[in-house]
Design goal:
MetI-like fold; transport; mainly alpha; about 230 residues; amino-acid transport; about 0% strand; flat; MetI-like; 9 helices; transmembrane transporter activity
């Protein structure tokens, strides 16, 4: 049975061609990882700040934050990238690499903000009132009561957002970046090796997403068992 599988595999995919294209895919793979890492890291940080602004309803900033979230969540990433790369070119020149990072950050921070906010509001008022009666400051309440519990409750949503944003990077090629999807299209267009190109694309994303998915599942288990 394994022999039949090997024969079928060789008939469907050209192994020599795949090996010859590996350097090109490797470069695109690390570019996608780099943009995802920076974009998601900034999105988490900015999302946390926005969530605090919304949760504490900080004057002036609260309204701006709500507008930001609505615009970010209700416009596709491709439009945001076009605006950053082509629209802003009249006023300021930004490289396509940083446009991609800013785009992922802009989109992701709104989703992260909502995840953090839902974690914040899930904390019972009685806990906050008890902490205030003990003389704890707002910063201490945030640090010792709100954050440890809210991050545990928000973690599944945050992890889902991370996976979502990594997959969203598949369109950054529209601003001239040689990411995984762009390289795949280029190989198909130049060589006509559709099966081989799609196989490498699927494997590349699975190499990133599957370990992250298992890691996030373990983190959720750990936080629920040892933090809550």
């Amino acid at each position: 049975m394994l022999e039949h599988f090997a024969i079928d595999f060789n008939l469907i995919l050209d192994k020599d061609f795949i090996i010859s294209m590996l350097p090109l895919f490797q470069k695109a793979f690390f570019l996608t990882l780099e943009i995802s890492f920076y974009g998601i890291s900034f999105a988490i940080l900015l999302g946390f700040v926005i969530a605090l602004i919304v949760y504490y309803r900080i004057p002036y900033l609260f309204g701006l934050s709500r507008v930001y979230i609505e615009i970010s969540r209700n416009t596709p990433l491709i439009i945001q990238l076009f605006f950053l790369y082509f629209g802003l070119a009249y006023w300021v020149e930004i490289s396509n690499f940083w446009c991609a990072i800013i785009g992922v950050t802009f989109l992701g921070s709104s989703y992260m903000a909502e995840s953090f906010r839902l974690g914040f509001v899930s904390i019972k008022d009685s806990q906050i009132e008890s902490a205030l009666s003990l003389g704890l400051s707002k910063i201490q309440i945030l640090k010792f009561i709100i954050f440890p519990q809210s991050i545990t409750l928000a973690l599944p949503s945050i992890c889902a957002n991370v996976l979502f944003l990594i997959k969203e990077t598949s369109i950054i090629g529209v601003i001239g970046l040689q990411d995984l999807m762009s390289v795949t299209k280029e190989i198909i267009g130049n060589y006509g090796q559709t099966n081989e190109a799609l196989f490498m694309l699927i494997i590349a994303y699975l190499v990133v997403l599957l370990p992250l998915s298992f890691l996030f599942s373990w983190l959720e288990y750990f936080f629920r068992k040892y933090v809550l």
